């Protein structure tokens, strides 16, 4: 018996995927946009085909590494078990890893005024439809009324079917503080997504009890 659950996550907050009003705030860094001949208002979105090709090569290399001696699964096992786990969770083991066959597609790159004064941000649409799967198994440990009183095996297979939205990249000023830091804080690059992204998930919960009974028979 195999339980399959499909989930789609679509945030209910209003989309921010609209260009801010230029009339409300002057264009940031005018000297940069002028010297780079970029019209923030009228410049059409640009192709990112070159970026798609480069990323595809990187992803393909990771997929090849994952198929050699389960290198990627062993690395994930080490990551999952190297940190501090809750006392009620046993060791976590990767049982299935599939990095898919398709590649993410980025498109419509453009520069827009940022919400932060004196800055701009890059916006890039992305679409990724594939079947990226990660399966894990572990144990839930019941520590009452005594330590390790009962153990419940847990197995889960999670697949990302679709992920799409708009990626934003911008330079962010450090937050203001009441006290002067010993080391001056510098601007940093923030990469995020607008809240109207779409994330389709597929969750499978194998019947471990039935599999155990078949093995015993």
From TrEMBL:
PANTHER family tied to this protein: SMP-LTD DOMAIN-CONTAINING PROTEIN, TEX2 PROTEIN-RELATED
Statement: the UniProt record of this protein carries the keyword Secreted: no
One GO term of the biological process aspect: phospholipid transport
Record key words, sorted: Endoplasmic reticulum, Lipid transport, Lipid-binding, Membrane, Transmembrane, Transmembrane helix, Transport
Domain SMP-LTD: 44-217
GO-annotated molecular function: lipid binding
Main location: endoplasmic reticulum
CDD domains: SMP_Mmm1 (cd21671)
UniProt entry tagged with the keyword Transport: yes
Family matches, as InterPro entries: MMM1_dom (IPR019411), SMP_LBD (IPR031468)
Localization of this protein: Endoplasmic reticulum membrane
One GO term describing the cellular component: endoplasmic reticulum membrane
Protein name: SMP-LTD domain-containing protein
One Pfam short name: MMM1
């Amino acid at each position: 018996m195999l339980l399959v659950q499909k989930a789609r996550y679509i945030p209910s907050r209003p989309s921010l995927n609209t260009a801010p009003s230029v009339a409300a705030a002057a264009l940031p860094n005018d000297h940069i946009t002028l010297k780079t001949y970029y019209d923030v208002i009228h410049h059409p979105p640009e192709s990112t085909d070159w970026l798609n090709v480069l990323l595809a090569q990187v992803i393909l290399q990771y997929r090849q590494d994952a198929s050699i001696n389960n290198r990627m699964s062993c690395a994930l096992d080490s990551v999952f078990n190297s940190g501090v786990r809750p006392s009620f969770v046993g060791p976590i083991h990767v049982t299935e890893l599939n990095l898919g066959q398709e590649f993410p597609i980025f498109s419509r790159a453009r520069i827009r005024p940022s919400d932060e004064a004196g800055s701009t941000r890059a916006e890039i649409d992305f679409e990724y439809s594939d079947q990226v799967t990660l399966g894990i198994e572990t144990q839930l440990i019941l520590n009452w009324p005594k330590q390790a009183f009962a153990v419940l095996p847990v197995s889960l297979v999670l697949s990302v079917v679709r992920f799409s939205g708009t990626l934003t990249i911008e330079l962010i000023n450090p937050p203001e503080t009441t006290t002067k830091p010993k080391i001056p804080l510098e601007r940093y690059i923030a990469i995020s997504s607008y809240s109207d992204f779409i994330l389709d998930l597929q969750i499978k919960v194998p019947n471990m009890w039935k599999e155990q009974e078949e093995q015993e028979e």
